[in-house]
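Handout, section 3.2

Students often ask what a structure token actually looks like in practice. Rather than define it abstractly, here is a full record for Putative transposase. The first block is the sequence as you would receive it.
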Amino acid sequence: MRYKRGDVKTGIYFFTVNLVQRHLRLLLDHVEILRAAVKTVKQRHPFHIDAFVVLPDHLHAIWTLPSDDADFSIRWMLIKSGFSRHITMNERRNASRISKGERGIWHQPVLGAFDS
């Protein structure tokens, strides 16, 4: 499946990122790991956090990206992988995720982009 991605320069982006297993509390139970992953990514790939809400099984974020770098997907990939590396692997993974070496923690983000 191909996802359509917005390409708005200096845009403001809204994200909802969900856990696959919605009954887990991974994000709250490991919020310090999530904070560290976001901080690390922000240092390498700067962006401004306008809002960030962490709930037990999903999060919402509003970011403003720099005018010369609207690549939010690399930022989310690095945040999710940085978080996932520090969480004990005990989730179920399907054959596709196993073959790609992916964890079974995250759903794809839902994106909205707004002109600034």
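Discussion prompt for tutorial groups: DSSP finds four helices and four strands in the chain. How would you have guessed this from the sequence alone?
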